[in-house]
Amino acid sequence: MLRSTRAATWLAVIVLGLFARFRPRVARALVSVAIGTLGIAHGATDDATLVRVGFRPRGGRATISLAYGSLAIVTFLAARRAPERAARALQLLSWYHFGRGDANFARACGSRVDARFEAVVRGAIPLLVAGGDSRSRAIAGAIFACAARHALAGRYADAIDLALPAGVLLASAPRLGFGIYFGTWHAVRHTVLLLERDARGGTARTRWQRFARESMPNVAIAVGVAALAYALVRSKGATADAMAKDDANEAIAGALILAITVPHEIAVGIIERRARTA
């Protein structure tokens, strides 16, 4: 399932990259579907997975969910008070989270790469959404140089893993490019790796059905909380005109993403450590 998923994410990114270039409205619709499904759901089983790998505080899943939600709320409020610091924190955390996740997926597929170095390189790919500034050009140059190094060493799948998403992000509008990466690359690979490591076994269909059942309650809660947070921010001093501005929307979206990512990354870290020592 891992190698077929790797190829599927290549195909998805190519198709959406072409749509983003020539039919951006279609691309936005498809990306919205991807984010609305696996994008949100890929971290929605963190509580169940933590219990399954042996992390069992008093109260079990209820305690984990309460701590998870509380940390998300605190993070969101802190991000709203200091949006510039939150934006920097989100960049650094995203670099670490996306990079480690994709490097672990590549290793699980059989790639013989240095996990730490590869995590640094792969984590830099989403940073290309900044566009054509000097920093993005430097990052892109480093990524393509590493891709060439993989290709020369015969590690063609790893070369594609670097060059393909980087090229699509550079060629797409920033928000759309990030949506393509998050919804059809990171979320898909994270979920399939999680399913592959599920010790309960079963066919691919059984694993996906189990994932859907376990994630649905938390997905519903996450969507509801995000809508409520957006409504509360609007009601406290943010006029309709202000909300229409890109900077206002980006600040709220950034705060929400950071609020979800912080507890998710902590959970993933615990799950990864438990998986290595199992």
Strand content: under 5%
Largest sheet: none
Q: Kindly state the mean pLDDT as a whole number?
A: 86
The value of Rg in angstroms is 19 Å
What is the strand tally?
0
Measured as a percent range, the helix fraction is over 70%
Gross morphology: globular
Number of domains: 1
The secondary structure category is mainly alpha
Number of helices: 12
Strand/helix succession? HHHHHHHHHHHH
- Which parts are unreliable, with pLDDT below 50 for 5 consecutive residues or more? 239-244
CA distance, first residue to last residue:
21 Å
Secondary structure layout plus pairing:
Blueprint: H1 2-22, H2 24-41, H3 46-52, H4 61-81, H5 83-108, H6 115-123, H7 134-152, H8 156-171, H9 174-196, H10 204-235, H11 240-244, H12 246-277
Helix pairs in contact: 1-2, 1-8, 1-9, 2-9, 3-4, 3-12, 4-5, 4-12, 5-6, 5-9, 5-12, 7-8, 8-9
